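question for whoever is on the cluster today: can someone run the full assembly for these? three chains, 872 residues total. i dont have access anymore since they changed the login thing
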Amino acid sequence: MRIVSTIALGALALVAGSALAQDKIVVTSSGGVWLESAKANFAACFKQRTGKEAEISVTASNEIMQRLRASPGNPPIHVAVLSETDAIRAGREGLLDKLDFAKAPNLKDVPEVFRKQWNDFAVIQNFGAMIVMVNGEKIPNPPKDWKSLIADTAAGKFGKRVSFPSLTMPWGPMFHWFLVQQYGSEDAVFAQYKAMLPNIAKYWVSPVEALNMFAAKEIDILVYWDGRAYAFAEENKWAKAYIPEPGAFQSAAMLAKPKGSPELAWQYIDCVLSPKAQLGHAQMVKYPIVNSTVVYPDDLKKILTPLAKVRQPDFAQIIERNPAWIDRWNRDIR
Amino acid sequence: MNSGWSRGYVVLAGTFILAPLLVVVAVAFTSASFVSFPPPGWSLRWLAKVLADPAFMRPLGNSLVLAALAASGAALLAVPAALALARGGFRGAAEIESFLLSPLSLPALILSLSLLFFLARIGLGGQPIGLWIGHVVVTIPYMLRTVLATYRGVDRSAEEAAMTLGATPLRVFLHVTLPMIRPGILAGGLFAFLVSFDEVAIALLLSTMRTATLPVAILNHIAHNYDPAVAAISLINIALVTVAMLALEFGFGLDRLMLSRGRK
Amino acid sequence: MTSDRRRAGLLVAPAVLFLAGFFLGPLLLGVGVSLGHGPGGTPGFGQYTRLLGDSYYWEVARNTLGLAAAVTALTLAIGYPYALILTRAGGVAKTLLLLLVVAPLMVNVVVRTFGWMVVFGRAGLLNALLRGLGLPELDILNSWTAIAIALAHVLLPFMVLSIAATLEGLDPALGEAAATLGADPWRQFRHVLLPLSLHGAITGCLLVFALCMGSFVTPLVMGNNRTMVLAVLVYQQLTVTSDWAFAATLGLVLLALVLAVFWLQARLARRLAA
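^ ran it for u. tokens below:
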């Protein structure tokens, strides 16, 4: 009987937990250091301004999208952090409110490039880039640009000890777009994937397995996120990280207000974009931010990929072409 | 079976089962900030961090409660059904059995997404009960199948005898049937508990911030941070289950719980 | 007879109603989506003709079935003796054997995969062992072999416990009686143990097979494009291309395949019993 009552109590706690009080808003964030930054920088600012709590739910973009679609107009999430393509889709499907400059005045300090492609339905909160990590002991002089990295890999210069992102991982299509810009056509890029295949340990699908392989020294070259790559290299002296020419594609976290969420959500968005919170965020997560009034300290400047080095993909094109790319990838690159 | 052979077999099977797990245990004690093997040094920092971090501990508690609730729900629904199906003798029994097993075969990703929209449509969107419903749906087949298999394998003449002697159906169930199917219920209950505890696809879409389960917390954590915390939380899971099962063994004797007739 | 039937109906009703509501309901919604009645879909059988008319998907379906069959056979081979030993053990030994077999389920799949990478990697533990023994090294990471081993590892408890549950319910006196009557161990096994544990073995096989068909994380992180299975395609369609209609179609095909195998098994079991 004691077991039954324990379970019943647990059930009660689950039910009671759901009764969300009205003086809170629900916002999303990635986990770990991202969550810590959201608490310390964004939710703290929100609390200070409004006296209310912003509850941070760690939810991935894909899951946010499904939840918004399941209850349109009555969103369970009041400020969403979405992927670039999901933010465009959500805007098109009428799930988001247009950015309101009057209610979130810090938007005026964010350059237009950080919201234009999204038709003002979402704004970038921070961005990053995909760069190259190498085992410096094995490969002291890695290729300086993407094209020679790809050619050398295909020629077997590094053995079967290289890993590139798969087209099927969430940011794969953006990397593909970036390569298409350099090689001029989709066919040419697919030919490169195919040529590299015998010398690719694996086209990685999850960031975790990619770092697994690199850390286990199964591979010597890994195309990876900049912030994580620098952090890894800092701790493991044998690892080096660098940006090949001509730079990298920009990947970003998009901030958006779902249609039907309370007005209070604008306060949170304004907090995220405020100079103080932006700088705090950059310092914690080691990714560049978007408020143009922020000046980075020197130590941060060294590791943040500068805006001039990144190219923003054409997301409308990616959404349109992606199904065909994935299909071709599944069939041909094996 | 010869005991020398079985000992050798257990050693081989044990090596197979433990090899990758020992790697994880080693990683849980690493001093590094990244997962690597062999660890460059040893420390308790990741275990300490995880144990002190509500971002892991709250979901762990949620998962334990949810798994217990899901297993109980599955038992309440599936055990009676299994008894009726094993006794058979009514039309459509085979079809009903297949139907009750079918949640096993729909990919959880699809079930999860369909359930999210379905629950929103019937007014249960975002409610914690939705998560429980989802987990009961996927755990019913385990309970049904193990109880069915146990009940089909035993000699049921004792039930008839008790019935003939005038015992009420409830008394027959409690004193004759239940002891016979207890191993099936325990195995099914353990499956249901473990499946719910490990389930991620449904929990990803149906849990709320307050009811987020441990697998969801881990998945969201490693999406952007790959540190040994995940190895540490896995070690804590193993420790929890070990303690629970040893307590059960020394408290009641697992043997007595699992064994029924025969050895009294 | 009628009161018996009514009682059976009452016993079955709660489970049937629950699943009719919360499984069939969402399932029908999924069928609707696959027929184009979802966000951004065009009504019709377009998704099904796209799938069935393409040899690529047939190949993936064959591979998926093959993998599930191989893993089922592997877990049965490892799990049956294990279940026998587990059943005969007593006290703490039994608890430890039980703990050992369920331990993989306690370890998150991603770190478990890292464990396998360390074991199977080119510079891994297995190859170190082989080198020490003077044997040729293996490169099995990202192959069907690695996926099958990793899946068998984590699905083993489902096989072992299913079989053990039926063996536990048996009267050990049966085996002793057979032994006293002079039956050798093989005859004891063949004529006493095997028939009685058959239901458990079938249960284990069904569970492992179905779980294997639906698993996507292990094939995703331990395989590559050559080791594509249906569940990974479903995952791709949901997370990368956001094509819910095609994902639902793929998922329903997967469901149909598993149900077909269940049905075949039921027929086969009936014929064996007869």
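summary bc i know u wont read the tokens: Residues 259-264 of chain B have pLDDT under 50 and may be disordered. Chain B touches chain A through 40 residues (CB under 8 Å).
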